[in-house]
Amino acid sequence: MGEPSATEPEQPGEREAGEPVIATRALTKRYRGGQLAVDGLDLTVPAGSVFGFLGPNGSGKTTTIRMLMGLIEPTSGTARILGRPMPGATRAVLPHVGALIEGPALYGFLSGRDNLLRHDCADPAADPRTRRARVAAALDRVGLTAAAGKKAKAYSLGMKQRLGLAAALLQPRRLLVLDEPTNGLDPQGMREIRTLIRELASDGTTVFLSSHLLDEIEQVCTHAAVMAQGRLLTQGPVADLAAGARGRLVVTTPDPAEAARVLKEQGVGDLAVTGDRVTGEVPDRDLAEVNAALVAAGVRVRGFTVERASLEDAFVALTGEGFDVAG
Ligand SMILES: Nc1ncnc2c1ncn2[C@@H]1O[C@H](COP(=O)(O)OP(=O)(O)OP(=O)(O)O)[C@@H](O)[C@H]1O
After folding, report:
1. 3 state SS of 211
2. What is the spatial distance between Cα 71 and Cα 250, in angstroms, rounded to a whole number?
3. Ligand 1 centroid from CA 296, angstroms
4. Domain ABC transporter, which positions (predicted)?
5. What single-letter DSSP state applies at residue 4?
6. What's the pTM value of the predicted model, to 2 decimals?
């Protein structure tokens, strides 16, 4: 690790409470072949957040993560992690960052425990005197203590992923960067990893995870950024992003045809009738008046609500198209 200068703190970012854990300005990557993979990205990841980096395949998530971790140089723009510039401060920053990128590198013929011991040996910052205890604690953390003696090749995909997370947790971390941590897992494996992420976050670790799964982001993340074709569409608290898209008015009634007619008169657009449910865009006028108009027209109203918009609604509103997760 380099000598700290008079102007740079030795512990990255600790001086600046409240400073974002990740901040990029106009971060751009054009690959040699000419492909503009990331285009002018301004990303702000608050300390303590579980930050979902969402986008379809090919939208530039992995390229961004590789720039953040100092694995590739940006074409232009800047990235700061824990208040320090990347890739310049890579050696000072990375000991505080646990990463799981493109699946864990494991030796199948070694046990889970021996994989972690080996991994820790390769880390020059790791203290050999505390190695066994740290490996045991990391195995415990991810629920692999009972399977620690099994060869890694006998592990399920979910167990391998958890072992990869354990490797990232051998040291106390201020930031965890996880690239598609549930990719390829069955629903049970996904649940386990999501639970683990929530637990890690509740200890105060900032977690930055990429995903192409909208519901995953809604379930585990406090904040999110949405990427499409290398560009940032939006970022912020998940609740705000979803609220940015308007919900839908839902009227439940045994008189759906008459209800649809009245709602149309009341200025409700994009009406759809399915069984006893009539849905439409939330109109600009007072909903009490809309409801009163239904009742005045003799429509028997069983239910009258505005369904909360999901992150998917927000995405559709932003892009004008569905969120295609194929591939
Ligand atoms: N090494 C490379 N050289 C040239 N082009 C690349 C390279 N790596 C990625 N790309 C291209 O850059 C774009 C963004 O890719 P990237 O892998 O960052 O997206 P992603 O959102 O992480 O997608 P995925 O989830 O499929 O990994 C894609 O068009 C991809 O083909």
Report:
1. strand
2. 49
3. 57
4. 22-254
5. P
6. 0.77
Mean pLDDT, 10 residues at a time, the chain of 327 residues: 42 60 97 93 95 89 93 94 91 90 84 95 91 95 93 91 91 92 84 88 91 83 91 88 76 96 94 93 90 96 84 68 48
Distance (Å, rounded) from C-alpha 308 to C-alpha 245? 9
CA of 37 to the centre of ligand 1 (A): 6
Instruction: Please identify which residue in the block is written with the tokens 């990303």.
Output: 43
Provide the 8-state DSSP code for 148.
T
DSSP code for 176: E
Cβ < 6 A, ligand 1 pocket: 31, 33, 35, 37, 55, 57-63, 212
Q: How far apart are CA 112 and CA 253, in angstroms?
A: 58
Q: What pLDDT sits at residue 9?
A: 44
Structure tokens at 208: 């930055």
Q: What is the DSSP string of 54-74?
A: E--TTSSHHHHHHHHTTSS--
The dihedral through the CA atoms of 312, 315, 321, 324 has a sign that is negative
- Whose Cα sits closest to atom 3 in ligand 1? 31
Site to probe by mutation for ligand 1, drawn from 36, 61, 71, 208 as the one with most ligand atoms within 8 Å of Cβ, is 61
Closest ligand 1 atom to residue 60 Cα is 18
- ipTM rounded to 2 decimals: 0.95
Centre of ligand 1 from the C-alpha of residue 196, in Å: 28
